[in-house]
Each structure stands twice: as C-alpha cells, then as structure tokens.
Amino acid sequence: MLGVLILVSLPSLVALVPPPVPCRHCCDHLEPEEGSAAQPPAGGFSHVPEVRTYINMTILKGDKGERGDRGTPGKAGQEGPPGSSGPTGSKGTKGQAGLPGDPCKVHYSAFSVGRRKSLHSLESYQALVFDTVFVNLDDHFNMFNGKFLCHVPGIYFFNVNIHTWNFKETYLHIMHNDTEQAIVYAQPSDRSIMQSQSVMLQLELKDEVWVRLYKRERENAVYSDDVDVYITFNGYLIKGSVEGN
Ligand SMILES: *[C@@H]1O[C@H](CO)[C@@H](O)[C@H](O)[C@H]1NC(C)=O
Ligand SMILES: *[C@@H]1O[C@H](CO)[C@@H](O)[C@H](O)[C@H]1NC(C)=O
User: Fold this and answer.
1) pLDDT beyond 50 at 37
2) Is the CB of 46 under 6 A from ligand 1?
3) For residues 48 and 27, which has the higher predicted lDDT (pLDDT)?
4) N or C: which end of the chain has fewer CB within 10 A?
5) Same structural domain for residues 39 and 148?
6) pLDDT at 196
7) Is 230 within the bounds of a domain?
8) Averaged over 42-55, what is the pLDDT?
9) Probe target for ligand 1 pocket from 52, 53, 54, 56, with the most ligand atoms within 8 Å of CB
C-alpha cells in the first residue's frame, strides 16, 4: 500500500522541477521527506546517500477483517459413471384374480379415413396422413401419425384408394410395421386415374398398418382436393385370433 503511494507521488515531484542535469543543485533542497526517498527518480540522483527504508509488514498489517459474503456456487461437475445395479428385490405377492370375462363379448375393429389434400413426395419416406374420419372405432386408427394400431389380434382386411396426378408418378406401399406388404403404383401419364390396392394381414397386438409414400427419386404424388375426397384408407377385423374375440 505504502509502496504504491510512493510510486504514484514521485512522477508528480519530478514534474515540478526542470530537466535533471541542469537543476541538480536547485533540486537538492526539494529532496522529499525521509521515508518517501526510498526510490530516487531515475537518473541524476545516484549521489544521494542510499537510504534503505524497511517496511515492517507486521506493523502495517491490520486486524483480521470480517468474513466476506459467500461466493456464487460453481458450475456443476461432470456426470459420474452409472453405479452398479442393486441386488434383486424379493418376489412380490400374487395379485388378485380378475373379474370373469364375458364369453359372449365380440371385439370389433374398423376404420375408414380420407384425405382432402394432395401430397407430394419428399426426400425421405413419409406416412400418408388423413384429415377426414368416416369411421374410427375406439380410435384404433391414429389420425396424428396415419397409422392403424392393432388392439385386437386377428386377420384384417385393408384397402387404399388414391387418385394419380397427371405427369407425375404414384408410388405407395401398404406397410405392416416397417415392412412393405403391397404396392400402389402408376407411371406418369397425361391422364390422372383412380388406383387401389387391397390386402389381408394377420396382425398381432401393437402391430401397425399404414400407407407410405415413396421418397423423391422420381417426383411422385397423390391428388385430392377440398371438394371431393379422392384418397381413402380402410381396414377392419375379419376374425380375431382368440376364440371369443
Ligand atoms: C516487526 O514489528 C513487530 C511488531 O512491532 C516486531 O515484533 C517484529 O520483530 C518486527 N520485525 C522485524 C523484522 O523487525
Ligand atoms: C410391430 O411393431 C410393434 C411396436 O414396435 C411390435 O410390438 C410388434 O411386435 C411388431 N410386429 C412385427 C410383426 O414386427
């Protein structure tokens, strides 16, 4: 602290007097008070007897200050590796028996949906989604992703109808999960036409059936408009796998 004060005050002292060499004598009486002479200005004062000022830090040192405020917390460290899995728990108790089933109950599943907007192929495959519902029993057909989800295992009938776009290709598949089952295809033509495809599929619980538009290798499209529904997708259960279904 004191040292800093000295360094700061010296340049102003030097500035008060003319250049060092000619004024050597007239400056002598301006010799700073003892203590602040610890560091003679650069050049010209080397003849002044060396005064060593020793600053005893122990004296300068004040009392211990108050404890500062707590700092803001540091950033969170990296996540550690997962721990090892714990021991297997004990076996639970047997649950209660369910209510007796209804032997006469018949399960149904049926949907019929349509689309009023045309669709062109993109760079990647896309599901044909629908905007019009004719029938959708228990919402087995998901209008958001365009996929029928099997809630009742069994044999189903599916059918898709589209209208082609003149001078464009039409290229769709009926999909069972991620596997193509049947195609709807039409070459580019100056005459647009209705095209359809049907198939029966054996479905298990949670299997999905949907219509996929092929990706744009050659531009392909299906046509529809606001006035009429040109595109439909239909499906229904013919026979459940389990007796009583
Ligand atoms: C500095 O000052 C303290 C307190 O007056 C004294 O005890 C100590 O001996 C001094 N240290 C030196 C090196 O003079
Ligand atoms: C179809 O996908 C569903 C959901 O991922 C899965 O549960 C089912 O086993 C799949 N079925 C077939 C035939 O791959």
Assistant:
1) no
2) no
3) 48
4) N
5) no
6) 95
7) yes
8) 61
9) 56
CATH of the domain at 136: 2.60.120.40
What average pLDDT does range 102-125 have in this prediction? 86
Distance, CA of 184 to CA of 99 (rounded, Å): 46
116, 196: one domain: yes
Residue 162 contacts residue 194 (beta carbons within 8 Å): yes
Amino acid sitting at position 105: K
Contacts of residue 17, Cβ cutoff 8 Å, sequence gap at least 6:
23, 26, 27, 30
Separation of CA 205 and ligand 2 centre (Å): 8
* Co-location of 56 and 165 in the same domain: no
pLDDT at 171 (0 to 100): 93
Q: Are residues 28 and 143 both part of a single domain?
A: no
233 and 127 fall within a common domain: yes
Go through 54-86 and write b for each residue having 16 or more CB atoms within 10 A of its CB, e for each that does not.
eeeeeeeeeeeeeeeeeeeeeeeeeeeeeeeee
pLDDT at residue 114 in the model: 96
Name the pTM for this structure: 0.56
Any ligand 2 atom below 6 A from CB of 207: yes
Q: Looking at the structure, do residues 118 and 217 belong to the same domain, yes or no?
A: yes
Q: Are residues 43 and 155 in the same domain?
A: no
Into how many domains does the chain fold? 2
User: What domain range is 22 assigned to?
Assistant: 2-60
User: Is residue 88 assigned to a domain?
Assistant: no
Classified as helix, coil or strand, 229 is coil
Rounded to an integer, what distance in angstroms lies between the CA atom of residue 157 and that of residue 162? 17
Q: Whose CA is nearest to atom 11 of ligand 2?
A: 207
Residue 19 CA to its chain's centroid (Å): 71
- List, in order, residues 6 or more apart from 14 with CB less than 8 Å away: 41
